[in-house]
Amino acid sequence: EVRLKKDTQEIFQEGVDYYLEGKFEKATEAFNKVLSINPADRPASMFIDRAKAYAGQKAEMDWKGVEILS
């Protein structure tokens, strides 16, 4: 699993960058690439779920790349 994490590190970071920029569709594409190489990557799955949820709300929110958990 460590090897797979290293193999997908650049793609994962690309997804995080897109996510923080509010580019949720591109982020989802990047995280899906990660999962195609490493299906057990739980953080990638989590980011996909969040990106899909936020993609539908983007016009309604002032995205700053921060999520407040309550």
Structural class estimated from helices and strands? mainly alpha
Query: Can you give the helix content as a percent range?
Result: 55-70%
Query: What's the main sheet like?
Result: none
How many distinct beta strands? Answer: 0
Tell the overall outline.
elongated
Strand content: under 5%
Mean pLDDT: 88
Our measurement of the CA-to-CA distance between the termini, rounded to an integer number of angstroms, reads 32 Å
Secondary structure tally, helices: 3
Radius of gyration: 12 Å
Q: Could you list the spans in which at least 5 consecutive residues all have pLDDT below 50?
A: none
Order of helices and strands: HHH
Describe the overall structure.
The longest helix is centred in the N-terminal third of the chain and has 19 residues, at 2-20. This protein starts with a helix and ends in a 15-residue tail after the last helix. 23% of the residues are buried. It contains 3 helices and no strands. The protein has helices spanning 2-20, 24-37, 42-55. Helix content is 67%, strand content 0%. The chain is mostly helical and 70 residues long.
